[in-house]
Task: inverse folding
């Protein structure tokens, strides 16, 4: 298969990927150009940020967030990284993930802020917190990530937090939320969540890119990423929904893009004004909370851990 | 041909296209990249008997 872009310019080059949802085959150089252009277009179209903004990229060491950080740097945006060490020692998961994030930070010569949850929870990582509180590890991880990405961004004066959520992540979540008609979650599923009192702006510049495209970008740009899946997330339903979508996509290319972007265009505007929760600062840490007793979810979790440790 | 998928290695004796190899291994083309002798290839490309192949999966749990 030949590169279509090269063919249009009268050249012949072997393609490295065929993208049925764009009816496009691209060689190495054209794919890199196309990939970065697509991200740049999403950022501008959705008014995520400008080159004047200071951006914090939340990196996990995986392919998506590292591809995002590298691409944003190449596109000329001012980006620093932020990594949360989750204290998962099984298969050296956290150590390897950190090393990959650090390696990219050194390659692009940008700082990497690190938060170690063992410093916050007196030596406990996610597995120990899961054992102690009996809360699902993914729920603890999500709570900690949401809280600390916001806190570090605000404390260090960033204009927004960029995350590596891709099209496959978004359609899987959208399908899950739709199947249960979870209007509350649907009303928050947007590529841009604007800043509001106590919350930094959150953006997802990879919403138009598939996991395969992010992986290919990493391979072609020689970005060393953590290949291991989180050992605590085995059997998560997201993977099943992603596989279901890939089957649909095989029969009907473009379904993922249509499902996600038509939701944003036609449904999200109807849902977003439904719930605007009242925010007030947490009486313990000052971060915003919607709870009536004015204690945020993370401080409540910290209290729970403290009490269970005592007993 | 020798085909590496994650930590497993498979052996196939006949020449085939990448897409047919993915089908044999029950892998989806939307979430896998084929590397033949160190280079990324499209699924329509033929893989010969003495080629070394690695398939990398893109799906992650999120």
Result:
């Amino acid at each position: 298969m030949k590169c279509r872009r090269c063919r249009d310019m009268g050249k012949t080059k072997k393609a490295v990927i065929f993208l049925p949802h764009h009816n496009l085959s691209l060689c190495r150089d054209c794919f890199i150009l196309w990939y970065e252009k697509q991200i740049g277009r999403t950022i501008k179209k959705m008014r995520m940020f400008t080159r004047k903004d200071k951006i914090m990229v939340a990196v996990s060491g995986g392919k998506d967030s590292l591809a995002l950080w590298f691409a944003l740097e190449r596109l000329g945006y001012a980006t620093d990284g932020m990594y949360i060490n989750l204290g998962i020692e099984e298969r050296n998961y956290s150590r390897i993930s950190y090393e990959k994030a650090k390696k990219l930070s050194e390659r692009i010569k940008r700082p990497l802020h690190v938060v170690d949850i063992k410093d916050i929870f007196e030596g406990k990582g996610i597995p120990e917190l899961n054992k102690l509180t009996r809360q699902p590890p993914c729920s603890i991880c999500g709570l900690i990530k949401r809280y600390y990405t916001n806190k570090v961004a605000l404390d260090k004066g960033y204009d927004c937090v960029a995350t590596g959520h891709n099209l496959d992540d978004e359609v899987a979540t959208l399908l899950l939320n739709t199947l249960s008609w979870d209007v509350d979650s649907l009303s928050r599923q947007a590529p841009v969540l604007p800043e509001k009192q106590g919350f930094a702006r959150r953006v997802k510049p990879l919403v138009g890119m598939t996991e395969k495209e992010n992986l290919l970008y990493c391979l072609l740009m020689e970005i060393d990423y953590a290949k291991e899946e989180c050992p605590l997330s085995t059997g998560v339903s997201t993977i099943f929904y992603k596989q279901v979508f890939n089957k649909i996509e095989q029969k009907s290319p473009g379904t993922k893009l249509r499902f996600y972007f038509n939701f944003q265009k036609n449904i999200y505007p109807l849902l977003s004004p439904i719930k605007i929760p009242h925010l007030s600062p947490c009486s313990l840490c000052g971060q915003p909370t919607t709870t009536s007793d004015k204690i945020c979810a993370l401080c409540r979790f910290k209290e729970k851990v403290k009490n269970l440790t005592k007993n | 041909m020798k085909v590496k998928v994650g930590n497993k290695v498979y052996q196939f004796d006949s020449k085939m296209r990448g897409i047919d190899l993915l089908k044999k291994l029950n892998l989806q083309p939307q979430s896998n990249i084929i590397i033949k002798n160190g280079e990324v290839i499209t699924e329509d490309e033929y893989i010969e008997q003495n080629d070394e192949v690695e398939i990398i999966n893109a799906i992650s749990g999120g």
